[in-house]
Please model this.
Amino acid sequence: MSNYGFSNNNELLEIIVWDSKFLPPKEANYTILWVRSENPSNQNELSISSLVESNAAKYKKRYLSWIHSLGLESIDGESVIEHLKLEDKFSFWWMTLIPAKDLMYKSPHIEDIIRFMAFDNWAKTQSISKITLFTSNSALSECFKLWCAELKIKFNLEILKEQRTRTQHPIRRLYNFVPFFIQGSIWLIRRIINCIPLRGIGVEQWKKTKGKITFTSYLSNLDEQAVNKGEFKSQLWGVLPEVIKNESLTTNWLHMFVKDTYIVNSKKAVNTIKNFNNLAEGKQVHVALESFLTWNVVSRTIHDWRRLSKLRSLLDKSLKHKKDHGIEFWPFLSGDLSQSLVGKNAVTNILYFHLFKSALKSLPKQEFGVYLQENQSWEMGMIHSWKSAGHGELIGHPHSTIRYWDLRYYSCWAAHKNKGIEALPMPDKVAVNGNNALNVLKEHGYPAQDLVEVEALRYLYLDSINTNFDALDISEEHINLLVLGDYSKEQTHFQMLLLESIAAKIPKNITITIKPHPACPINCADYPLVKADVSKEPISNLLQKCHFVYTSLSTSAAIDAYYFGKRVISAHNLENLNHSALRNFDDVFFVSNPDELLSKINAVLVDGSTCLSSVDYFHTDNSLPRWRKVLLYNIKSTI
Model:
């Protein structure tokens, strides 16, 4: 719609707000589409997503500022941050879902808040007499009800039957239905039982290590062939461990145990860590975070959990009426607060806090620490524990892409200036892996002096693409389509459902290969109409053999495909903002329904499979000159 307004000759508008991916009622005069794209030929439809994207920087900044203000809100003479003090100079606030801002995986209501900000800004330019909301979202309906009451606009609610796709097992749905405290209790009991085999594994070597560099990482994305020989090799760290080893330097590795297709349980993790330590012969010291699980750690976790959970009611009542530009957004975040202080998220992060405290306190003084920076909640506790233990410079490394709407990487500029317990926990340096990450963080106010450039360890193989790989001809008799899955089960399921919907119409000469995310397996039996093979081959091998690529919205693997010169088609569930690392790339297709997907596949077959432009995302020099400068030269000067 041009100029983002309705042509109503200054008459009072009665508006429908349609919160569904399905088509709105045909008889509707003026319709606000909450999660759909507008029909360009219909002048009486307006997409909220279009409003958001038309002024994305404004709404992003506004949301970050509001979240910052929540932490500083005074209650009985103390800020929210101070109320959640866990120990001296550290508040549990930083480990809750609200400042984490993880809209992609943990707090989807953030997108509704940003949409509402855009709607509010638009609505104040209109003359509205009545709003009828069609939704199954109770938080959205409560927010609209409060907004309409404030502006004296008539409000009518029409409850839609829940249409969101369910991908969870019935037992998981039952678990999500029980009270948060019971969820947290179940999780803690299961976690303790699952991690008992890891207790003490590698701890003695850890306490006696002579290494001065410590890496914190996940025990996942391992090279299976190397691991089967007892050698530590991770896709997350590339050749860096070997480069450091060749410099005769000892490194320490603190692994967080997460299940994937290779490390299927804690017993497998135990054997893997033991093999790493045996083969490394003291040049690498490996330990799991869960190796530090003791009854004392569990006791302190339960004590802090009970204490913090008692604050939920006070904070919820006090923040309930905290407004932003006159709007009460708390209905969207009340659940996040409860989950953060009472539920599984609460006990998870408190346990991680005490595990990191135990692990880093028992580690001999370190000169440098490096960790995979995604600004997850556990990282805040790790940063505090590292500095409290008196270790040296801590470096955060965003190992993949930094996407525009991944708000975990962004904060209100004022947060960098807070002091004491209200200061945002930050590493001493952030090691960015290319010009894109460097420019994005600088543009959003991250202190430039705290940014250093390094090579993109996960993407070093991209350095040889231009010289070693030839583009495939889309006119060949047999065409290979590569499907790249997502970390999120919901995103992957949406992607696969679109593909299954058009399976019968896909040209017969197209062969489909599926590469799931390591943490989210894809079972072809769940999509019987899709004739495809699931591959465990490295993505670099698969990209050489495919003609074009179909990805989920959020996966960073889309960048790999684009680097290879492949045309990329991404499945965009319109319930989400565009989370893609390729957002705003003109030669990337985003599809939200079966017809669009089939149309873009046919377009690629006609127009060619090579993307139209190049991308300069990463530093990919395999000799690692930047990492050597940041880490190796400095550590050698201290020895």
Q: What stands out?
A: The radius of gyration is 25 Å.
